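Researcher: Re-running this chain for the archive, since the previous output was lost when a drive failed. Same request as before.
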Amino acid sequence: MKGNECYQTLKSLYDANLLTYQKSTEALQLSHEFIIKNVFEITWKEMKKEYGPAPCEFSWFLMGSAGRCEQAIISDQDHGILYEEKSGSCASYFLIFGEKLIQALNDVGYPLCEGNVMCSNPLWCQSNKDWEIQIKKWIKDDTWKSFRYLLIFIDARVVVGDENRVMSLKRMIYQIIEKQPALLERLLENTKYHVKAIGLFNQFLTVSSGPYTGYMDLKATAIFPYVNAIRLLSIIEKIDSTSTLSRMEALCKYDLYKKIMDTHHSNFKKLMHYRVLHRDTKSYKDGRYLHVKTLNKLERREIKQIFKDLENLQSFTNMVVQGGIKNER
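Model: Regenerated structure tokens:
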């Protein structure tokens, strides 16, 4: 089967899975993983036919919701490449491959990343040495944008190649932060803002105009705040896992977090379930909104409790980051 035919087969599978896996978050993630890996393999074979084998070893990693295994029904692209040898020919080869890969993924059903966090961008396709320089520069720059990129990289999950190179870079980040704890507060500031979900009279605060009128932005009000808080705690504890749920499970090994993580683990699973349960997803943006009117009384009560628990987690994370609470290692 030729490349175009293979892509079309995967596109058909992708479209079918939009309906098949709308009520199972676990099956949805497995479906995404299968399709993405197959797109990579097909594109890689085409690349080698046209440009020859890779000039050096490399790793391809997913970031964002894909890196965390938390993709919505329709998910965009977030990925990068780390290659071993620093040279112009290596850079050219992997950027060409990156361009081919993003177009193939887009054709199958994964929209291009609006922020250009993709391996066709030289910022996200670098040699091992240049990645080390880049990460240190992000930390030194001390800007909202540079710390945002740093947090995006922390969620990197290798799906092709040796994961040790990427893990070494993450551990370098942990070591720098351990020596410069003030960086944690800067990272906290970078993730503190979130959209309020509950009003003064315990009512849901929904979108008031446009196509999502009456909907709640579940991604901005709940999912992102959970992701950000748990990621920060995981950085403090040098946890290698990338999914929010697996990070919570790893945090449970520490006495400091044992009492609270069971509740938050359950809450986050519920949020993932609500995200796919109450919608007819037709576009990438649809994946972040929840139509409040589709919720029954029990579901409304449950979601409001999740928001209350989330506020407690954010306060707790704030105290841990600022040193008000310390874990006994």
